[in-house]
Amino acid sequence: MHQYRTHTCNALRLDDAGSTARISGWVHRKRDHGNLLFVDLRDHYGLTQIVIDSSSPIFSELEAVRLESVICVTGDVVRRSEETVNASLPTGEIEISVKEMTLLAPADPLPLQVNSDDDYGEEVRLRYRFLDLRRERIHRNITLRSEVIADIRRRMVDQGFTEFQTPILTSTSPEGARDFLVPSRIHPGHFYALPQAPQQFKQLIMVAGFDRYFQIAPCFRDEDARADRSPGEFYQLDVEMSFVTQDDVFAALEPVLHGIFEKFGGGKPVTAPPFPRITYADSMQKYGNDKPDLRNPIEMSNITHIFRGSGFKIFAGMIEKDENVRVWAIPAPGGGSRAFCDRMNSWAQKEGQPGLGYIFFRDGEGAGPVAKNIGEERTEQLRAELGLKDGDAVFFVAGMPRVFAAFAGQARTQVGEQLDLIDENRFDFCWVVDYPMYEFDEKTRKFEFSHNPFSMPQGGLEALETKDPLDILAFQYDIVCNGIELSSGAIRNHRPEIMYKAFEIAGYGREELESRFSGMLNALKFGAPPHGGSAPGIDRIVMLLAGEHNIREVTMFPMTQQAQDLMMAAPAPVTNDRLEELHIRVVLPPAKPA
């Protein structure tokens, strides 16, 4: 018999009754019934109930064992009586009558209970992450993550992709976030950067003549934490393809994503390929952001013409004063009551807005101050254009869209949630396409790349030379699921003259470009194929599949929101000897006044 186990804690069944078995695991739960002690023993695979009679010479020894101690037991597999069968467990028809017990590792008193779903707070959970990972929900999530990654690999290989690994120590890149820097010992004053993404390397793989690349790639960005973003590192399905158009990239990724969500999504409906495509401009107009949650049926509309010259002087005056002012309508199907409209108005004020204008419909007409001011004819025109009926409402935001769009998107979501319009039991995918190549930074008064700097502008070199930079679109796209951006991607620029011009518009001189991106630039000069790709985030995919709202719940060893690893005590100071070896002097910021 094996030293530790003949079976796992999920393996024994009714057919094994009458045999002798040995299992090992953690003491999950104990129930003392006086003459009988029942213990649930747990390992990675599941639970098995063991039982010992008080007449046993090892009864007191097992009784004294603390929860989460590791034990090995040997005994007879016994059929449970009919009334004690646990139908919720695969092993629920049997139990082990303990004859021998070995304490393999005793446990100290626990800082958090493994057999409970109670929330002990971020600090306790992450300081004792090895205990937190034993808990059923998060243990299941991490196992799901492994299964999803294995299935992704299989699907990519089946589509003719080859997996390659790219360097971790590299140079800085304008990916839109701060780099993590690594000092060089043998090159004083010089630093490596951890890759924000393998962007340049995967393009160079295409230039090198490999056709279809993928990698489950670690990425590092010195960013603040959010619910859907880790503060230091994350993983993505990094993909690049040669001789492809945007359509080809979509056709390669859609079956993979659809298949993963169909297999691991718990039976929820998944958008069938081809996924809907929404332009960036339409997404901002209809949904207030470029990450539309299509489970919410509400679409916003530009109804500026309804208020131009109307009796609602606040909006009419704004429109008359500035031709760039817009009024957007946010329909609220089923929200046609003054009480609901007042609640939404109060919510808007809590969000720092002056309020939220509205009209609600009853008895065949519009009601509320806005309806009264614009008059019956305009109100009816509005109702007809938006397809509203009695029992519905509509809310309004006005001003410059670039200023109010984010709030309008939040209001759309708030209406959808409050009226229970969002179907939580499905996965809705879409592509957001036609991103602007550049944006203008009001502080620096310079054009900046709005997306990936290595993207191909629509119209190529001619567009860069003849168009207003803010009018240039790029072959850039995002894949979105249920309002979560899973990845950005693009068809890449493969011509050096286009790269020179594109970076010149963003303020990079020829010399700086050749210095900072010499590898990429030189590669393009020796014959680069048209190529493109994308990089769906593994963490976010698993978060959606697990039904979690925080990426920490699907990451094995995450950092805190303050980017600290409490378990391993990182980041930490280093000795002066080590700093001298790296030619670094630490200059701390002045202490903040108490």
Describe what this molecule looks like in 3D:
There is one protein chain. By secondary structure, the chain is of the alpha+beta class. Helix content is 31%, strand content 23%. The chain is built from 18 helices and 22 strands. The protein has helices at residues 59-63, 122-127, 129-132, 136-158, 199-207, 246-264, 280-287, 304-307, 313-321, 338-350, 369-386, 401-418, 460-466, 496-505, 510-516, 518-524, 538-546, 576-581; strands at 20-32, 36-42, 47-53, 70-79, 94-105, 162-163, 181-183, 191-193, 212-220, 233-242, 277-279, 301-302, 326-332, 357-362, 365-367, 393-399, 429-433, 438-441, 446-449, 476-481, 484-491, 531-534. The strands form 5 sheets. The protein has an 8-stranded mixed sheet with strand order 6-9-10-22-21-20-17-11, sandwiched between helices. The protein has a 5-stranded mixed β-barrel with strand order 1-2-3-5-4. A hairpin with a 2-residue loop joins strand 14 and strand 15. It is globular and about 90 Å long. The termini are far apart. The relative contact order is 0.11.
